[in-house]
């Protein structure tokens, strides 16, 4: 033992010190290179405090963004990750300067809010389907209708002919399928049920879309970790997870057939492709003659395009310009410009999928135009 | 004679303290009922008798959660009570004296373990054990006893009841221990003098005298089991259906609240959850009233009381 600690003192401590120094200097470099562009964003020298609340999914990214932004400017942003539902409630109640949600507000919610609430996409999320089939040599291929029927309880065994037809040259085990879904209300459930509602008429007529839906079969796990834990433990299980969680835990993921008929795995490029394809297809969103910020509550599920992964969604920041006034609106717009255009790498390093740069530019330009003109614009 | 200032001050402080508890309880009830009011007005019948919980369609039937809450708590009580009484009797009357303190200490330590740790233990130890060993062994019994019919996934009413049983064990055991210790030694000596064996002393002299206190301890355990949230949510399978067998997934009211409250955004959903909270409050109240009634009945009417 003494020898061990001695050697740590000789080698370990200097190494640690060196590493610390290297980190500090690296940070210093980054800061100085970015400081010029960022200080220009906030003309006044007084400290500004903004508060926000909402979705938990983008929380790691937002807190990183807010921390870095605070070192570059005099704007401090305090964010509470209380869940999407809470984010919407707090914006409408005007207790925060902005909200965040994985689930867009419904028209009814917007109408009862009594003021325009802008939905600003910040980053793209996706849902991965994971499974536990020991000895399966290849990734599992599934089509949207088969996924819907598995979660509806119509397909109950892995040896079902429709599953076999999608996976030629693979022997599927003759075991029961156990469905695992989220028990807690969640944006992940919303995206997944939005997908199922879009692709399956019987799902649309049955459970429908929502953060909490009435799952016809299976057991409920609490949180991503609850679903992942139960799928990992039970051979024959299938469940859905937020994609970053699935990737970080190296879980097997289903290759899902997209609208173009190709089996796609949930990788960053394929997820971003869904956003590009949807925004391309919906040209009127950014048509040059329309004024103000477009209504970006668009769903990305079952997106067109050969590369698109079909179970993806934006996550949004919610800003109600009339509630917080022009000054705070402009400060938020400046932050969003910085986060989306100057700093997209942070999202990738944390495992998120940044908005495609062209889409980000359009969104930010429109946002600036809206807020500069003092127009609240459509939702 | 004027009472001294200290006395009056002391009296005021204790009165305020005593009044604070009912005040908080009343306030709490009022807030919960007020928030639950829209759902109670609109969906009262559904909440009390419906068994469909479908948030997008605003169907809020709470019967599966109510049944799951009562079943899991009662099964937990049925498992924990004999164990806890055994521990209490052992550490007061039967076991070797030098083991009394260590055993009691270890049992009390169970009460200090956070709920989430029990949940994790349930997920990673108990559920695999149930699924791979215990449930397959019990499944053949299912042919004659519907309680043990499969499919045996693991997360189930049984898993939740077992976790709850371990969680409430220390409460029942430590109250029982104190109650048994409070039985006067003369009681035991008298029974011994009449030629009773050690077991007969416990059975005929100690337990009957302690009966009302023991019931109080058991009811304390039941109250805790009814309200336990996180550990149950992690192992019960969270399914809105009345379980047919011990192996079926189920739901409890407390875990329903914990699961859905954070992300509930529609007013109807929030209000329905508040109504479930109000129902849970009501059930807890009823259980406590029942406990009071049992304790009084036992303390006055039954043969054991002739020694007290």
Automatic annotation (TrEMBL), chain A:
Cellular component, GO annotation: ATP-binding cassette (ABC) transporter complex
Annotated SUPFAM superfamilies: Periplasmic binding protein-like II (SSF53850)
Biological function: Part of the ABC transporter complex PstSACB involved in phosphate import.
Domain of life: Bacteria
Molecular functions per Gene Ontology: phosphate ion binding
UniProt family annotation: Belongs to the PstS family.
GO BP term, example: phosphate ion transmembrane transport
NCBIfam families hit by this protein: 3a0107s03 (TIGR00975)
Keyword annotations: Phosphate transport, Signal, Transport
Stretch forming the signal peptide: 1-19
Domain PBP: 45-340
Pfam families: PBP_like_2
Subunit structure: The complex is composed of two ATP-binding proteins (PstB), two transmembrane proteins (PstC and PstA) and a solute-binding protein (PstS).
Annotated source species: Gemmatimonas groenlandica
UniProt-recorded name of the protein: Phosphate-binding protein
From TrEMBL, chain B:
GO molecular function annotations of the record: phosphate transmembrane transporter activity
Keywords, in A-Z order: Cell membrane, Membrane, Phosphate transport, Transmembrane, Transmembrane helix, Transport
InterPro entries: MetI-like, MetI-like_sf, Phosphate_PstC, Phosphate_Transport_Permease
Domain ABC transmembrane type-1: 66-291
Coiled coil: none
Membrane topology, record value: Multi-pass membrane protein
Domain of life: Bacteria
Spans through the membrane: 12-37, 65-91, 103-130, 150-172, 272-295
Pfam entry (one): BPD_transp_1
PROSITE patterns hit by this protein: ABC_TM1 (PS50928)
GO cellular component: plasma membrane
Family: Belongs to the binding-protein-dependent transport system permease family. CysTW subfamily.
General function of this protein: Part of the binding-protein-dependent transport system for phosphate; probably responsible for the translocation of the substrate across the membrane.
Name of the protein: Phosphate transport system permease protein
Organism of provenance: Gemmatimonas groenlandica
Name of the gene: pstC
């Amino acid at each position: 033992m003494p020898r061990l600690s001695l050697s740590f003192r000789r080698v370990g401590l200097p190494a640690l010190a060196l590493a610390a120094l290297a980190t500090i200097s690296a940070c210093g470099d980054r800061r100085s290179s970015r400081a010029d562009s960022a200080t220009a964003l906030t003309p006044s020298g007084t400290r500004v405090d903004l508060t926000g609340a909402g979705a938990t999914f983008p929380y790691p990214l937002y807190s990183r963004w807010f921390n870095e932004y605070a070192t570059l400017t005099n704007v401090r942003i305090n964010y509470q990750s209380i869940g999407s539902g809470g984010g919407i409630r707090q914006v409408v109640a005007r207790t925060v300067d902005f909200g965040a949600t994985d689930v867009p507000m419904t028209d009814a919610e917007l109408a009862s809010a009594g003021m325009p609430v802008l939905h600003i996409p910040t980053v793209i999320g996706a849902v991965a389907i994971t499974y536990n089939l020991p000895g399966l040599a290849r990734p599992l291929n599934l089509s949207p209708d088969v996924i819907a029927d598995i979660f509806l309880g119509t397909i109950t065994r892995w040896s079902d002919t429709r599953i076999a037809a999608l996976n030629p040259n693979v022997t599927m085990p003759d075991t029961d399928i156990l469905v695992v879904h989220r028990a807690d209300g969640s944006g992940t459930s919303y995206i997944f049920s939005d997908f199922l509602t879009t692709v399956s008429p019987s799902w649309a007529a049955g459970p429908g879309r929502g953060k909490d839906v009435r799952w016809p079969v299976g057991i409920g796990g609490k949180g991503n970790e609850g679903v992942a834990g139960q799928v990992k433990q039970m051979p024959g299980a299938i469940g859905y997870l937020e994609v970053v969680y699935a990737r970080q835990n190296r879980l097997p993921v289903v290759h899902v057939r997209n609208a173009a008929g190709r089996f796609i795995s949930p990788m960053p490029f394929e997820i971003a492709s869904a956003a590009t394809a949807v925004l391309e297809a919906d040209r009127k969103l950014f048509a040059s003659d329309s004024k103000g910020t477009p209504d970006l509550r668009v769903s990305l599920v079952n997106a067109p395009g050969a590369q698109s992964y079909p179970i993806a969604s934006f996550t949004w920041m919610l800003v109600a310009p009339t509630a917080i006034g022009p000054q705070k609106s402009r400060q938020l717009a400046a932050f969003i410009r910085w986060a989306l255009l100057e700093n997209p790498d942070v999202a990738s390093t944390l495992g998120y999928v940044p908005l495609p740069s062209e889409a980000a530019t359009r969104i930010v330009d429109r946002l600036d135009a809206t807020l500069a003109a003092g127009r609240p614009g459509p939702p | 004679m004027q009472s001294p200032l200290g006395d009056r001050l002391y009296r005021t402080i204790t009165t305020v303290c005593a009044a604070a508890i009912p005040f908080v309880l009343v306030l709490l009830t009022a807030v919960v009922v007020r928030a639950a009011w829209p759902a109670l007005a609109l969906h009262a019948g559904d909440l009390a008798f419906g068994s469909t919980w479908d948030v997008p369609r605003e169907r809020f039937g709470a019967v599966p959660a109510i049944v799951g809450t009562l079943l899991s708590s009662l099964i937990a009580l049925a498992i924990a009570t004999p164990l806890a009484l055994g521990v209490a009797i052992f550490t007061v009357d039967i076991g070797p004296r030098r083991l009394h303190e260590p055993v009691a200490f270890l049992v009390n330590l169970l009460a200090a373990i956070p709920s989430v740790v029990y949940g994790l233990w349930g997920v990673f130890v108990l559920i695999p054990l149930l699924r791979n060993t215990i449930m397959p062994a019990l499944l053949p019994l299912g042919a004659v006893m519907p309680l043990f019919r499969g499919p045996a996934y693991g997360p189930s009413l049984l898993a939740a009841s077992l976790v709850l049983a371990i969680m409430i064990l220390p409460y029942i055991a430590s109250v029982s221990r104190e109650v048994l210790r409070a039985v006067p030694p003369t009681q035991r000596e008298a029974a011994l003098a009449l030629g009773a064996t050690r077991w007969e002393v416990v059975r005929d002299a100690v337990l009957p005298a302690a009966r009302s206190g023991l019931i109080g301890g058991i009811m304390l355990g039941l109250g805790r089991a009814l309200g336990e949230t996180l550990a149950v949510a992690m192992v019960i399978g969270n399914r809105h259906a009345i379980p047919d067998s011990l192996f079926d997934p189920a739901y409890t009211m407390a875990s329903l609240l914990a699961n859905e409250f954070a992300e509930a955004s529609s007013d109807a959903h929030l209000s329905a959850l508040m109504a479930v909270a109000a129902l849970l409050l009501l059930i807890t109240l009823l259980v406590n009233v029942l406990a009071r009634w049992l304790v009084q009945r036992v303390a006055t009417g039954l043969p054991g009381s002739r020694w007290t």
